[in-house]
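Page 47, continued from p. 46.
Same chain as before, 146 aa.
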Amino acid sequence: MIQWLAIALFVVLQAIADLHAAWGLGWRWPYDSEAGLAKAVIGTPSVTRMPSLAACLVVAGLLAVVSLWPLFASGLLTAPWPAWLTQLAGAGLASVFVGRGIAGYLPAWRSRFSEQPFAGLDQRYYAPLCFAIGTGILVILLQGIP
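Result:
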């Protein structure tokens, strides 16, 4: 069961990483324009441009690295470092993702990222997805690192 959860988390995180890389390379899906995409994925008022290629690739790279954590934590990949380091990384990742999931519903976040359609997409999809990823990481973490 845990291995299936680990694979699911890997696939979801890797897909999100791939999407960020594609956006950095100029792909505008699911919108027709850079401004439309920026309003949907950044959410700050008056945003009209996507972040730079470098910024998108940094996010994509970080997400790609994070996507490997469930595979190491579940024993699907053998970690070349001590188990406690995998546990520590998992605790940090769970905190970040659960925190981001919760933040999507806080007034301070809502006022900072108020641009539509981001604000609606965030409450409907982005924040719950982050919370689910963080919860999945917690489940694997609590199951124990092999």
